[in-house]
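Private note to self, pasted from the team thread so I don't lose it. Backbone tokens:
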């Protein structure tokens, strides 16, 4: 949600600020995953205070949101989340404000994450496999064929043992 907001801010701003052209992944990657040249480019862009890029501000808000998940206590996590929410909603960046409102709508779920540390990544992965099965099963006439295709894709079967013609 927040990455999409940062990217939308960048897309809108790139039309006016040429130096953002070709820098998409600079603002979507975590700082520690940037290459040396990307890190140098980011620092150059950040060190231009007169330009006051919304993209840079949105990127800092995104980075701050990630830092919340490093909090050691439930209370610290909630306090940091509230502080971040206030900052995001007062940022004067519409895309970030919308992302913050989305998080506010799921506030209890975000807070519950701290206790359970469970996310829906596995379900999202399975869903993508099911969508791939649906795409492969197009043209087949029955639900049974779709179900078979889903089992074949999600079953982690080793087809190298089966003597299929190539």
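Design output:
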């Amino acid at each position: 949600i927040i990455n999409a907001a940062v990217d939308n801010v960048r897309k809108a701003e790139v039309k006016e600020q040429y130096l953002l052209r070709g820098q998409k992944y600079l603002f979507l990657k975590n700082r520690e995953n940037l290459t040396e040249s990307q890190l140098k480019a980011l620092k150059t862009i950040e060190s231009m205070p007169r330009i006051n890029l919304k993209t840079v501000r949105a990127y800092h808000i995104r980075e701050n949101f990630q830092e919340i998940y490093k909090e050691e206590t439930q209370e610290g996590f909630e306090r940091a989340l509230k502080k971040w929410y206030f900052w995001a909603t007062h940022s004067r960046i519409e895309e970030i404000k919308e992302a913050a409102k989305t998080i506010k709508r799921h506030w209890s779920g975000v807070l519950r994450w701290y206790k359970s540390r469970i996310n829906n990544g596995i379900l999202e992965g399975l869903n993508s496999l099911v969508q791939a099965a649906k795409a492969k099963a197009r043209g087949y006439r029955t639900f049974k064929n779709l179900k078979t295709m889903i089992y074949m894709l999600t079953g982690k079967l080793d087809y190298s043992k089966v003597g299929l013609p190539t």
